[in-house]
Design a protein that fits this description.
The structure is a homodimer. By secondary structure, chain A is mainly alpha-helical. Helix content of chain A is 70%, strand content 0%. The longest helix of chain A is centred in the N-terminal third of the chain and has 37 residues. At the A-B interface, helix 1, helix 2, helix 4, helix 11 and helix 13 of A face helix 1, helix 2, helix 4, helix 11 and helix 13 of B.
């Protein structure tokens, strides 16, 4: 039956391959070695960082990020990428590889670039899986219930930091429009995982304040992903065109809403398909086909792959296979998501903010400015709550501060798009780290925590930020 | 604290990036689109193939492979690789990508090569995970118990097809030594999964014949992996040097035995580490660090990555975390292993065996020769059993026939190394397909099956060949 496909024959004797294929075949073991060694370094760094962070009572994802900084271009130079003038000679991982393979300089460069490309794509697939998992965990029903208060808080929490951040960067620091918008957008995120974990520890998850914070954080996620899709697209074209902005905002919203509406119809079909499959991977493979297809469409219509993955997660959360899928996606996320966080840290060159170097001071000022806007811009959201006399406005504002992994997604995508200057990129990462570090103690103070051991009111550990946390 | 790592500063203003980084940043969304679309095609093909194969009562992995042939270079040209003169214009997937991204010819070539590289490495990681899983499922204890009979059957089943295949190819067809040895080695494998599934269906798994077949197949796996490591290394250096062959055989054996012995000591440490981890992925990440590190070492000392992964699986199977690991590895294998099987099929250009083209006839004769040797070389193993009067020698011989996925691993690695001529590669794949198709009906005849519905004596569905089967 196969021979029916035959269209033409080829000579029996082996014909010489063109140059590229030869280069590939010769270096393919070295590329695989490079990828395997990179993954070993990434997993080791991520796990050690997470465990240390957890023991110090900080969110694990922060440990993963800081471990990335340590193995990356700022310090150990193990995980580095061919950008900003970095060559194979700068990579200590390549030096290790050279002990085993004696590659020519040209082959070494080829291997370095190829393995970096593979790790970059794996990191992108990692963030796609992360957003797919977040989508799976976000309950559409819950989103509808949290109501108008949370929506107002979320909108204020997106609008104020975005406007203050973008405006300030352009007016005070003369940053060009596109990177300024990108940095402003990175300020809009709220990490539901970190906040809800602390609220749960304080026994405040079911309080009025807690409900508003969690609801607003969920809505914030959705708004943040739309903002990111718009901003990242602007970064790709490199110019701001009013029609384009309108297209992007409408497009992203329509894409998300359309997916959810169509998804309602697709639900039953998906469940039916899954039920009829008899071979291994009967749930996970159809789910991945759907998620990757949606990610492809998101990317192809010049929005973002993660928007598609998030929409796919929202849709599949409504199916009967949802619980099984939650279980199956965990080990896959466990091995792919750390690649994203570690490489975000690894790419961030903290040396550009070394205060000992005079020309770095402007960058440092930007970092300080972003952190101030990040904190104040969210604290004001507490005063957006109306008709709730006696509510703890400080607690709500402080609860919205941590940026967590959504802020990092902005930094990572900004870095990959090449639109952010190095100091701006590093400032965003430091802003994310600091807001995430500060939120837990601030929140305890705002709620007047007496230090009593908490009761776990609700298991929200798999929500968002905790994608990297509880085991 | 981060700034301690600062070594030097860099200018605040964004400096222009070198050419390569620009090319990468510009094309990175297109590369991601290419990878996502490739994965969607691979998963769709694999799932449909598996389901059809299963319904026709064939092993699912065969369906995956044939689906790969259909989407690959032989027919639909969706999943093709830049080798043997294939360019981006030959890839229908790239044509689809061009609808969304209007890339220049140079950019298109860059995107095609980059996404092919990523898919190739993902396929290699897929086969590493497959061998890790097989290692996890192979019980060292069981291996020790099956005893001398199974060992003799396994050794005969490796030696006879290897000698007859290699010798015949060199003497009759004048194939050069290295590809002849490679093809001969591909004849040595036995698929434990397919055989044990059929034995279980016939209710013969616990019979004397069944026990010998399964035991021999397990030993065959280990021998096959050592043979593969040796042969693949020969293919890399391109010449046969007696010292090198001795080094490789001793090296591979020592590596495997050494890993198992050291692993006995490492067991407790691993369990202890896993127990003390508190963050997500506490079992899977340490396991992957170990597996990828062993795979890296296997690759780095010029053996094979899969040998290291297999050894890692054998070692971790002895730990307390083994059962949990079996569960966690499944969804990961489900999404990575199909990439390997589909790309093996996709790379195989069946047109080189089109009998309508006169110069293909030599290749066809090779295919016929390999199939005959593959069947006869295993049937003789039945007569290697001694001191067992009245045993069904036909059944034992026939039970050893199916090559399954281990044969495909040979074909895949041979193809990646560039040592096999296209007709020889395709002949091996057809040999694997035919032996695997033929074994189930042959085995029913040899056992004189009356067609009664079977009782499932034992769940061996996760063993080897069934890595792709029961859900």
């Amino acid at each position: 039956m196969f021979l029916n496909h035959a269209l033409s024959g080829s000579a029996f004797l082996r014909t010489p391959m063109p140059l590229l294929a030869t280069v590939e075949a010769e270096n393919s073991p070295a590329i695989l070695s490079g990828v395997l060694l990179s993954l070993v370094v990434i997993y080791l760094a991520s796990k050690i960082g997470e465990e240390v962070s957890k023991r110090l009572d900080f969110p694990p994802v922060l440990g993963s990020l800081i471990a990335g900084v340590i193995v990356g271009v700022s310090a150990l130079n193990l995980i580095v990428f061919p950008e900003g003038g970095i060559s194979a000679d700068d990579s200590n991982l390549m030096t290790i590889l050279q002990w085993f393979n004696h590659l020519s300089p040209a082959a070494l460069t080829y291997v370095f670039e190829s393995q970096s490309e593979v790790i970059s794509v794996l990191a992108e697939i990692g963030v796609i899986i992360l957003l797919f998992e977040i989508g799976l965990e976000s309950n559409l029903q819950q989103l509808k219930e949290v109501g108008i208060q949370a929506t107002v808080v979320a909108c204020v929490g997106v609008a104020v930091p975005f406007a203050a951040g973008t405006g300030g960067l352009m007016a005070i620091f003369h940053v060009p429009a596109i990177p300024a918008i990108f940095a402003g957008a990175a300020l809009t995120a709220t990490s539901i995982g970190i906040t809800s974990k602390v609220l749960s520890e304080l026994g405040q998850l079911k309080s009025k304040e807690g409900q508003i914070i969690v609801g607003a954080a969920v809505i914030d996620d959705v708004l943040g992903i739309i903002v990111l899709a718009v901003v990242a697209s602007l970064a790709k074209t490199g110019e701001i065109d009013v029609f384009n902005v309108v297209y992007l905002i409408l497009g992203a919203t329509a894409f998300l809403l359309g997916s959810i509406l169509l998804g309602g119809l697709f639900n039953k079909t998906f469940t039916k398909i899954v039920e009829n499959l008899e071979t291994r991977g009967s749930v996970i493979i159809p789910a991945f086909i759907f998620a990757f297809f949606m990610a492809f469409i998101g990317n192809a219509i010049h929005l973002e792959a993660i928007l598609g993955a998030f929409a796919a997660g929202l849709v599949l959360d409504e199916t009967d296979a949802s619980n099984e899928l939650d279980e199956l996606i965990r080990p896959i996320a466990d091995i792919l998501v750390p690649i994203f966080f570690v490489t975000v840290g690894a790419r961030a060159d903290l040396r550009v903010l070394n205060p000992a170097v005079p020309e770095n001071r402007a960058g440092l000022l930007i970092a300080v400015f972003l952190i101030v806007v990040a904190i104040l811009g969210k604290i004001v959201t507490g005063w957006a709550v109306f008709g709730q006399p006696g509510i703890n406005r400080w607690a709500i504002g402080v609860g919205m501060i941590p940026r967590g992994e959504v802020g990092l997604v902005f930094a990572g995508i900004g870095s990959a798009s090449g639109v952010l200057s190095k100091p701006l990129e590093v400032s965003i990462i430091i802003m994310v780290i600091l807001t995430t570090f500060l939120a837990p103690p601030f929140l305890r103070v705002a709620f007047g925590d007496s230090g009593h051991p908490p009761t776990d009111e609700e298991d929200v550990s798999v929500k968002m930020g905790e994608s990297q946390s509880a085991s």
